[in-house]
């Protein structure tokens, strides 16, 4: 009787731990300049309205192609360490695959990708940029900017709970609390 109870409980615990696991390795990104309060990160909306850029007005075709490629994979499953559409993606495997298919080589887990390219503030983000999330300067997740319109930022990313999805991070408390910075790996 006890064995029958332990197995389902163990299985349930394993599923819960997997669902809440991080997308990447737990190594810490140590740049102290990214420590900002939630209110500082949210203040981007006023500046964003002044210097708005939308996907429809983006002149850089490479950026548009990256987003188009990323959208093809919406609905693909999340797989820890996944790097191929046939098996599924984790967050950094997804970004690496999309960029590689557009002639840009980025690799490694999210904390390594966070060191590539040029750093950008939230107000400077453009379609095709990478955005990084985590806690206390510890990068745990990466996404591709899909749309920037006034004070709204949408990203495409592979999440451990929903697979590859399109999310509006500007209206999500979850993503706003975890936003760290952006990077431009195209210039």
What does this structure look like?
With 187 residues, this protein is α+β, with helices and mostly antiparallel strands. The chain has helices spanning 2-19, 38-42, 44-50, 61-71, 91-100, 110-113, 173-178, and strands spanning 83-84, 88-89, 118-120, 130-135, 138-149, 152-159, 163-168, 179-184. Helix 4 (61-71) packs across helix 5. The chain is globular. The relative contact order is 0.21.
Write the layout of secondary structure elements.
Blueprint: H1 2-19, H2 38-42, H3 44-50, H4 61-71, E1 83-84, E2 88-89, H5 91-100, H6 110-113, E3 118-120, E4 130-135, E5 138-149, E6 152-159, E7 163-168, H7 173-178, E8 179-184
Give short descriptive properties of this protein.
6-stranded antiparallel β-sheet, endopeptidase fold (from Nostoc punctiforme), alpha+beta
């Amino acid at each position: 009787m006890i064995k029958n109870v332990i197995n389902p409980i163990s299985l349930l615990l394993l599923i819960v731990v997997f669902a809440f696991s991080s997308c990447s390795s737990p190594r810490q990104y140590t740049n102290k300049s990214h420590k900002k309060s939630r209110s500082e990160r949210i203040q981007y909306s006023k500046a964003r309205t002044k210097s708005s850029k939308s996907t429809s007005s983006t002149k850089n075709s490479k950026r548009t192609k990256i987003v188009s490629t990323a959208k093809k994979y919406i609905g693909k499953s999340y797989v820890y360490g996944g790097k191929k559409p046939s098996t599924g993606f984790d967050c950094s495997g997804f970004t690496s695959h999309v960029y590689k298919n557009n002639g840009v080589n980025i690799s490694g887990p999210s904390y390594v990708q966070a060191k590539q390219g040029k750093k950008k503030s939230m107000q400077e983000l453009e379609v095709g940029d990478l955005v990084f999330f985590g806690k206390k300067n510890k990068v745990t997740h990466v996404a591709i900017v899909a749309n920037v319109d006034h004070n709204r930022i949408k990203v495409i990313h592979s999440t451990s709970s929903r697979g590859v999805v399109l999310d509006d991070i500007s209206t999500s408390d979850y993503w706003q609390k975890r936003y760290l910075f952006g990077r431009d790996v195209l210039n």
